[in-house]
Specification:
Length: 239
């Protein structure tokens, strides 16, 4: 596929995802990459409004024809790149977010979601299982970034055969619930600079990566620190 989309076709898994979404009447969803609209249809059927952003013009045309009865009523359709899409231009202020994220934009899409976190009530995304593991089970820059901003749950694991075209990897369906930011912006920036520098040198001890490291952290390596440990370093380090 041109934009690395894979479409969920298995009705049982579609139903499971809809159940996890707990769609309510008049919910307003931003859906990125609706594809042929199978999940879009189920969301609309339950009374929600969907703002669908589809980069592929051929799929955009399919969606226009398929949903012509509800266009600009229950479905607002944009043939745009989500990474360049200005959410501020939408009439509403608060959204729910759903996407079967195309593999090649996953990381950049996550960064955009973080940048717009205050606009989302919740986020549900399908990603490669490998990406889900990096976020949930591993210690790295991405996992600390996501877990600082969101409570994350893996809700479902999907095998390759439920998609078309069939990918080579398993996928995970994640639920992300925004957290309140507890550091001011300048300290947040410092936190993630410290984490980024640390994980670029992940095999070294902190005393060989950062200046003025408190004694209790000097001989630790980045993977030995929790998010709270890094937050403690924000206040301790002259950075």
């Amino acid at each position: 596929m041109r934009f690395s989309q894979v479409f969920l076709k298995d009705k049982n898994f579609i139903e499971k995802i809809i159940n996890f979404l707990e769609v309510k009447e008049n919910d307003i969803f931003i859906e990125v990459g609706p594809g042929d609209g199978e999940i879009t249809k189920e969301i609309i059927k339950r009374g929600a409004i969907v703002i669908a952003i589809e980069i592929d013009y051929n799929l955009f045309k399919v969606l226009k024809e398929k949903f012509y009865l509800v266009l600009n009523k229950k479905l607002f359709l944009f043939n745009e790149d989500f990474l360049k899409f200005n959410i501020d231009n939408l009439s509403w202020s608060k959204f729910r977010f759903f996407s079967n994220l195309p593999y090649h934009i996953t990381h950049n899409a996550l960064f955009k979601i973080i940048d717009n976190k205050e606009k989302f009530l919740d986020i549900h995304i399908m990603v490669q299982k490998e990406v889900a593991n990096k976020i949930i089970k591993e210690k790295n820059y991405l996992s600390y970034l996501i877990n600082y901003h969101f409570d994350v749950k893996e809700l479902l694991v999907l095998p390759p055969n439920v998609f078309y075209p069939k990918p080579k990897v398993f996928s995970s369906f994640l639920g992300l619930l925004p957290k309140d930011n507890f550091l001011e912006k300048s300290l947040e920036e410092k936190l993630f600079n410290i984490i980024k520098i640390s994980f670029k040198n992940r095999r070294k001890k902190l005393k060989n990566i950062l200046k003025f490291v408190p004694k209790e952290y000097e001989n630790k390596r980045p993977e030995e620190l929790s998010l709270n440990d890094f937050i403690n370093l924000v206040y301790a380090l002259k950075f």
